[in-house]
Amino acid sequence: RDRSPSRGLGDVYKRQMQTLNEFVFAPNAIETMEPLFAYIQRQRRGFDNMGKNEDPKPHKMLLGAQKNVLTHLLHPAVQMRMSDTALYGNEYSLEQMMGELTKGIFEADIKRDVNSYRRNLQTEYVEQLIKISGLEKASNYDHLAKAAALYELNRISDLVDNSRGDRASKVHKFYLTDRIESCLLYTSPSPRDGLL
After folding, report:
1. How far is CA 78 from CA 23, 42, 93, in A?
2. Between the CA of residue 130 and those of 10, 15, 17, 192, what are the distances in Å?
3. Which one of 119, 122, 124, 188 has the lowest number of neighbouring Cβ atoms within 10 Å?
4. Residues 32-59: what's their mean pLDDT?
5. By the 8 A CB rule, do 172 and 122 touch?
6. Contacts of 78 (CB under 8 A, 6+ apart)
């Protein structure tokens, strides 16, 4: 019988990822709040706003919450802990976590329109993966995290390489594909480098 301290952590991590994908990263994560947006704007009274925009900012609000969760999950210490605990009982690998995160952020939108909240989230996730991978600037992540990030970037490039959805979705998918491919080309050795 396995008595390691990390025994069973894999199931806990899987449930946590399912919960995040269902409630934080889902396409309808903010749907129940949308009818309230018109009511959360401050009442205007003369000129007391001093030139500031008082409109509710649901995109900023939701992306801020999602970004906080992503920043935690993709933190170098968390990534290293995922790899380390796999050596002493954790059966949920860094690669599985990253794969489920990509699935939760992208899968529901493959064959349909991508709403504006998801476009923000997907772009933020791609930017964080680029940072982890070290494709543009040196990265302080370990090699396992860099490899997982690079793998997910390639997977995302394949996932969004289609022409489905409305115009905004097509523009978004084109942007993500171009962003990823530009990074991959930027770091590829050229014959001028003498590496080929």
Report:
1. 21, 39, 12
2. 26, 26, 21, 24
3. 188
4. 65
5. yes
6. 72
